[in-house]
Design a protein that fits this description.
Blueprint: E1 2-8, H1 32-42, E2 44-45, E3 49-50, E4 57-62, H2 71-86
Parallel strand pairs: 1-4
Antiparallel strand pairs: 2-3
Length: 112
Amino acid sequence: MAVIKEYDFIQKDTITADEDGKTPVDEPGQDSHGTLTLSVVGGYKEGTLVSPAFGAQFILAKTEYVPTESRVEEDNWAAGIEWEESYGVDVVSSSLGYSELTMLRIIIPMQT
């Protein structure tokens, strides 16, 4: 698989794999979801899997900070898309979803 560029918007470096000893902390296995989705998009295993983008070049952006769900992740995602676009990407595959944001947990009294 041809990964031609990568950037970690959490650690602000070019390593999207988990890194030990960094602050903020990379959760162990944090990179596994991206690895799995990348294999579905661009992977190849003879006799088993030929993904739709097999043979393509890939640019990776890590934007998820696993310990919390906060709005900065949305900013990181947008920055990642803009960064990838600056290198001329043709297609973006993104896997994310939020059911709640940590910073938005506001207790509102229920009215009876």
